[in-house]
Design a protein that fits this description.
650 residues; alpha+beta; 6-stranded antiparallel β-barrel; two-stranded antiparallel sheet; 15 helices
């Protein structure tokens, strides 16, 4: 469920936070009696501090407490590595204006053979009172994992956190709870800059700025340390799927985050098939009744393939279905590793809606597509080369003019003998101005309703060549397609009906096709993956009603022109033949019933004056006509006899 790289980064972040905060936690207010026992406010320095915290060992060669009433012995006793006194009680005795740690290292072992060390520079905790730190800073840090499968190296820039509750941090990580207590806020704010991490697989992650607000959580049965160890280990060792699912659900439910703002994220990978670069200019998350995530200016590039997305917004995101699915696995009796496909689908979070704007994809030119003539790699000269056919002699002093498709280097001047021509590699572009997707509440991991709208979808017509129906458009003179799409459907699990409320495709200078209807025998089990969906649909599905509307906006005229050329007929002559075929041939093909004649008459009117054609069909049987019956029908007439059909044009 969690990729090893992700587990490693997660553990790194937790070790980093815990390392700074737990040592900074050596500064909480002293009771009045302790203050009176000290001679005066002073600076106290201790050396060789070593604190084991679960699988993490913290080391500080030197720690200085400034503005404290504690003696050196009292401070050393509080930070004693083998003290039997609980951390929370020790924290309550600390009081300092600041704590300074020039070098702080956090050494973490596991899972497996992984070993990781995080070293912080110039750690300072200020205004330490009543178990809280007003501000915690570190000038930077290095991360090193030299053994294990997740080897890598990284650095942090400046780290800053405010309003830290060290007692709450200790309780969350080390003290078990039932997961139902109140949320305990640990951070007011946290800021990290200039993060870089590279692993042995050739992946490099960079983050320019990361800001979080109101981070906290609830105590859980294994404590956060224990739960993170279980989740990071996956299904290895003593863990089984039930233990993993229980800990994952505990962590998801226990974590509280007010907001998150990440800027300048990039992930690069030195893939053998070509380097890949993924970038996000900014990503934000906000909790609350209308929680959501926004990603801005996303780019993926690999060679001449490049995709860019201006904005992606996810609204009303809820992890409640994910937690519920994990709880079911944790309570189950199966002890096999991993999750089934159905269980993975049920882990999908609920999503109220998604919108995206300004999507563009530049595709490399198909090898079978015609390419631009290769450019001469030699520098352009002031005159044509001597002896070249059709060229002027050097003495004529003529300057070679660049071709319109060519572009000079930015600093090159016309006629510069050092100027070179740059021809960008040819590409084809797919673009989408706006898209919106909304979902209804899920049932067994399947949304009960969904609506998709695509506005301003443009693409080269040759990309759809060979596709049913739409693949013929390039033959009718279309080079670029400009489409709008709407798909609105609702699933009624009890009635086992799928309502196609609106399926519309509109093409500029093409026309519009709109479909509505109701399909029966459709339930959530269609998507459970036990059988191919097409197989299940054939045996269980039925057609109850169908409404089809076709509006012409230029396609029919192009079709008629193309067919006229192929058949060596005038367009008007061919139109008359199609009218005759509609009025006489279509009824014969469909069985010569009243419904068949009505369809033929409507088609004839449409051909004569291409405008709008409307077809309405409804099953006479409440359960609808089974798809398997439609596929096995002996003739169209056999199906028309089981439907009420109405057709009209214009």
């Amino acid at each position: 469920m969690i990729h090893p790289k992700v587990r490693s980064r997660l553990r790194s972040a937790l070790a980093a936070s815990c390392a700074i905060l737990c040592l900074a936690g050596a500064a909480a207010p002293a009771p009045l009696a302790a203050q009176e026992g000290a001679a005066a406010v002073q600076d106290v320095t201790i050396t060789d501090v070593m604190l084991p915290l679960g699988g993490t060992l913290l080391r500080a060669p030197k720690l200085t407490a400034s503005g404290t009433r504690l003696s050196k012995d009292e401070l050393a006793a509080i930070l004693k590595s083998d003290s039997s006194e609980p951390w929370e009680a020790r924290l309550a005795r600390l009081d300092a204006g600041s704590l300074t740690i020039p070098v702080l290292s956090s050494e973490h072992a596991g899972p497996g053979d992984d070993r990781q060390t995080v070293t912080y520079r110039d750690v300072v905790a200020r205004d330490v009172k009543a178990g809280r730190v007003g501000e915690l800073t570190a000038a930077g840090a290095t991360v090193s994992a030299v053994t294990g499968p997740n080897r890598g190296y990284g650095t942090y820039g400046r780290v800053r956190a405010t309003d830290l509750d060290l007692a709450a941090l200790n309780r969350l990580y080390t003290v078990p709870g039932d997961g139902k207590g109140p949320v305990q806020k640990v951070y007011g704010t946290i800021q990290v800059s200039d993060v870089t991490y590279s692993d042995a697989r050739g992946t490099t992650v960079k983050i320019a700025h990361l800001n979080g607000r109101d981070l906290g959580g609830r105590q859980i049965p294994d404590g956060w340390n224990g739960a993170f160890e279980i989740v990071a280990a996956g299904f290895q060792g003593p863990n089984d799927r039930r233990t993993f699912a229980a800990s994952a659900a505990d962590l998801i439910e226990a974590t509280a985050l007010g907001s998150l703002d990440m800027q300048g994220l990039s992930v690069s990978n030195t893939d053998p098939q070509g380097p890949v670069l993924f970038e996000i200019e900014r990503a934000t998350y906000a909790a609350g009744p209308e929680s959501g995530t926004v990603l801005e200016n996303m780019t993926v590039s690999r060679g001449s393939l490049r995709a860019h997305l201006g904005r992606l917004a996810l609204s009303n995101v809820s992890l409640a279905p994910t937690v519920e699915a994990l709880r079911k696995v944790a309570a189950g009796s199966e002890n096999r590793p991993g999750f089934s496909d159905a269980e993975m689908r049920s882990l999908t979070p609920a999503l109220g809606g998604m919108t995206l704007t300004d999507l563009s994809i530049d595709l490399p030119l198909d090898p079978e597509q015609p390419k631009a003539a290769p450019q001469d790699p030699r520098p352009a000269t002031r005159g044509p080369a001597p002896g070249r056919p059709g060229s002027a002699k050097p003495s004529e002093g003529k300057v070679a003019e660049p071709k319109p498709a060519e572009a000079k280097a930015p600093d090159a001047k016309p006629g510069d003998p050092l100027a070179v021509t740059i021809t960008p590699p040819p590409t084809r572009r797919i673009a989408l101005r706006e898209a919106a997707l909304s979902f209804g509440p899920p049932q067994d991991g399947v949304p009960t309703a969904s609506r998709l709208t695509l506005t301003g979808l443009s693409l080269p017509a040759d990309l759809v060549a060979g596709a049913p129906i739409i693949g013929a458009l390039p033959a009718y003179g279309y080079r670029e397609l400009d489409l709008d799409v709407v798909a609105d459907a609702a699933l009624d699990g009890k009635a086992r009906d799928l309502s196609l409320r609106d399926v519309t495709v509109t093409g500029r200078e093409i026309g519009t096709v709109r479909l509505t209807g109701t399909l029966g025998g459709i339930g959530p089990e269609l998507f459970n993956g036990t059988l191919p969906a097409a197989t299940m649909l054939m045996f269980s599905g039925s057609a109850k009603s169908l409404d089809l509307t076709i509006e012409n906006a230029g396609l029919f005229e192009r079709f008629l022109t193309a067919q006229s050329k192929d058949l060596s007929l005038k367009p008007d002559e061919l139109r008359k033949e199609y009218v005759t075929a509609s009025l006489l041939g279509v009824p014969v093909i469909l069985g010569n019933t009243a419904a068949a004649k009505g369809i033929g008459a409507a088609m004839g009117q449409f051909v004569m004056k291409p405008g709008k054609l409307v077809l309405h069909a409804k099953s006479k049987e409440p359960a609808g006509i089974g798809f398997i019956d439609i596929g096995a029908a002996r003739s169209p007439a056999a199906l028309l006899d089981r439907m009420d059909v109405e057709a009209k044009a214009n």
